[in-house]
Write a structure and sequence with these properties.
Elements (H helix, E strand, L loop, with lengths): L8 H28 L69 H5 L3 E6 L6 H11 L3 E7 L9 E4 L4 H13 L2 E4 L11 E5 L11
Parallel strand pairs: 1-2, 1-5, 3-4
Antiparallel strand pairs: 3-5
Length: 209
């Protein structure tokens, strides 16, 4: 027996219509429910649905591991040692002296000083022989003559104290076993240079040890 039995035709038609509306409403409700499940899949245009502070598709490294460290920075090359100056003498090397100045090869530097040789004896040519001896040893002899203003006791190299002549006269005296003394009054005003006055005891060619 149908649920519409005993109803008039208009009432039957109304019941069928209500049932149809209910079915349509149920269908629409199901579709709405289905479409509502995906409403959170995309956010507003231009924004990401990913929560702030997280990056999509990446994950934090597992605990206990560390990021690879940066390679150690290279330090500047150490400065190279400064080569020694070419004008500075190395350790153990002799210093080259200048003429008339202390230091260096003092014996060689003294020989630039002018030497004048005078004969105070009756031996002819004695001053010339002495001058040749001195020149042979490297001395700068530029004058040879006679001295007759007095008698000199022994062959002597005279110098002016405090000048280059002093060191030169003393070296010359040591080389040839003669004396070295400051100039005396009679030759104080003579030209610059070591003055050697040779007497009769001078041995030509003789050099001290």
């Amino acid at each position: 027996m149908s649920v519409f039995s005993g109803l008039s035709r208009p009432m039957k038609a109304a019941g069928v219509a209500l049932i149809g509306v209910a079915i349509v409403a149920a269908v629409i409700g199901g579709i709405s429910a289905l479409s509502g499940d995906g409403s959170n899949e995309a956010g507003p245009s231009g924004t990401s649905s990913t929560p702030p502070g997280t990056s999509g598709g990446t994950s934090a490294p597992p605990s206990g591991t560390s990021s690879p460290s940066a390679p150690p920075s290279t330090s500047a090359n150490p400065s190279s040692p400064t080569p020694p100056s070419p004008t500075s003498p190395g350790a153990g090397q002799p210093t080259q002296g200048q003429p008339g100045q202390p230091g260096g090869d003092q014996q060689a530097s003294n020989k630039w000083v002018t030497v004048r040789v005078f004969n105070n004896s009756t031996i002819k040519g004695l001053a010339d022989r002495a001058a040749e001896d001195f020149r042979g040893s490297g001395w700068n002899v530029n004058e040879v003559g006679n001295y007759s203003q007095g008698v000199i006791p022994t062959t002597t190299a005279f110098y002016r104290p405090g000048t280059d002549e002093e060191a030169a006269a003393k070296q010359l005296a040591q080389e040839f076993s003669i004396k070295a003394e400051p100039r005396f009054e009679g030759i104080q005003s003579a030209s610059p240079g070591v003055i050697v006055i040779v007497t009769k005891e001078y041995e030509s060619g003789h050099k001290g040890s």
